[in-house]
Amino acid sequence: MAVAALALPGLTVVLDVTRGRLELVDELLLYLLVVVVVTLIGGLWPSVLAALAAGLLLNWYFTPPVHTWNVDAPTNVLALFLFIATAVTVSAVVHRAARASTLAAARAAEADVLLALARTVLAGDDSPQAVLDHLHDTLGLAARFEERTNDGWILLASAGEGDGGATTRIPAGESLRLLVQVEPGTVGDRVLDGFAAQAAAACVRHRLRIQAEQSEALAAANRMRTALLAAVSHDLRTPLASVKASVSTLRQRDITWTDTDRDALLATIEDGADRLTALIANLLDMSRIHTGAVEPFIRAVALDEIVPLAARGLDGAAQLVVDVPDDLPLVCTDPVLLERVLANLFANALRYSPPGRPPTVRAERTGDASTVAILVVDHGEGVPAADRARIFEPFQQLGDRRPAGGVGLGLAVAKGFAEAMSVHLTVLDTAGGGLTMQVDVPVSRAVRHPVRTQP
Amino acid sequence: MTTVLVIDDDSDLLRALRINLSARDYRVETAGEGGAGLSAVAREHPDAVIVDLGLPDMDGADVIRGVRGWSSVPIIVLSARDQEAQKVAALDAGADDYVTKPFGMDELLARLRAATRRVLPSAGDPVIETADFRLDLAAKLVRLASGDAVRLTPTEWQLLETLARNRGRLVSRYQLLQQVWGPEYQTETHYLRVYIAQLRRKLEPDPSRPRYLLTEPGMGYRFSD
Question: Which of A354, A420, B177, B211 has CA atoms 20 to 30 A from the CA of B88?
Answer without folding.
Answer: B211
